[in-house]
Amino acid sequence: MKLKTLTIFFAAAGLPFSSLVNATTVEYWTVQTQSDRIQTIQIMADVFAALNPGIDVKVIAVDENDMPKQIAAAAAANTLPDMIEVGSDLSLAFAEEGIIDTKSSTEVIQKLGKERFYSGALKLVESAELNEYVSVPYSGWVQGIWYRADWFKEAGLAPPTTWESIEAAAKYFYKPTENQYGILIGTKADNYAEQCYTQFALSNDAGQFNKDGELVFNSKAQKEVLDFYKNLSQYNPPGPQSWRARDYYLQGKLAMFFYSSYILDDIALAEAAASSLSSENFKDLKGAAFDPDLAKNTRLATTITKTSPSSFGTLVGLSVMKNDNKEEVEATKAFIEYMNEKDQVVAYSHMAVGGHLPMLRDIAETDEFLNDPKGIFAQYGKESIKEIVAGFDSIRNFSVVEGKTFPKSGEIFAKQIIPRMIYRATIEDENTQTSLDWAEKQMQQIVSE
Questions:
Q1: Measured in whole angstroms, how far is the alpha carbon of residue 353 from the centre of its chain?
Q2: CA 33 to chain centre
Q3: Tens digit of pLDDT for each residue in 224-260?
Q4: Do 301 and 406 reside in the same domain of the chain?
Q5: I need a surface site. Which of 95, 237, 278, 306 has the fewest CB within 10 A?
Q6: Domain containing 38: what range?
Q7: How many domains does the chain have?
Q8: What is the pTM of this model?
């Protein structure tokens, strides 16, 4: 029976969704705090309880930024929830603290079918030391280069998936006298700049730490990245640039730009694009009408390759927490398996189209997933959306190296060392080696604390 049908049936009958007498309770902490999303998740939990008499699911919303301290307090009081929904970095950190039931998470993945998951997503939640998974990959967003596929086709240019093809296209489409620019990469000292830079760095196997936790940022490979990034920045719109310069793309003045899959609706829907179609944000943009063909003329290159393929994004998974109550553990595993059924995955994904991409390949390719309520995916076409989600096959980040997580990477991120390094090299035109030396010194201070 479909989720919607079950909901209507129980509501009409005035029946409770779960038996609260002698029920096994699954306490589920989610980082989805918006009321409409909580309502959707609660309906899924209630239907599960209705289908599994004797099991109750208690959904608790926890702000993502508060999750570490809330989990720490719960662990100290021996009141951990049965399962949590968090990013891959946090689940790895919690596993290192010994509070995640990695065996149970691994068993769920095996039961669902390991081959169904995007391979990069599994790597982000794999503990090399335990040879187990710290969570079941569930959703996420992926970043890449959004580009005018129609312009590329007309120019006979290859898609921007390698350093060479990216630079060639940026140079070809750079026509500042016509108020047209080749690419948008972050050059302002903000998080957007780091997101752009990180994907290039990992495509050249230039990391922050090695598997032994040693800082290796100031390397020959990293200098190649910063040199390339600085060169590429000359094809940007003028001035220090951040995500806001996406306006150039939506107004037809930009060939390529870095962004996450959250922008799917901005490109496809007039009401979502409105904030980027005015002249308010950039004096050299006169404003433009919404282009109804922009979505079908846009593609996303999720993977960049230099020495190895690299995608960048965020992965959220469902983790089983340590618990001596075997009945609660089994109920939790059953609930996670239920959450990975097609109807539930689709309902969860449609809460944030483009931001909650599913981690099960077969579901991501179904008509049900592609038929979102606002018709956004349909404007891009099935093949284009499949390419976008497939970016999770090669997703990587700085903080995970061969299954080991390094919390210091998060502290480096918080201090915005890489964005400030980028600003020094691109906007202040500092020598790239000097910028790298400065960044290394800043990182060493954090590592030594």
A1: 12
A2: 18
A3: 999 999 999 999 999 999 999 999 999 999 999 999 9
A4: yes
A5: 278
A6: 3-140+314-378
A7: 2
A8: 0.86
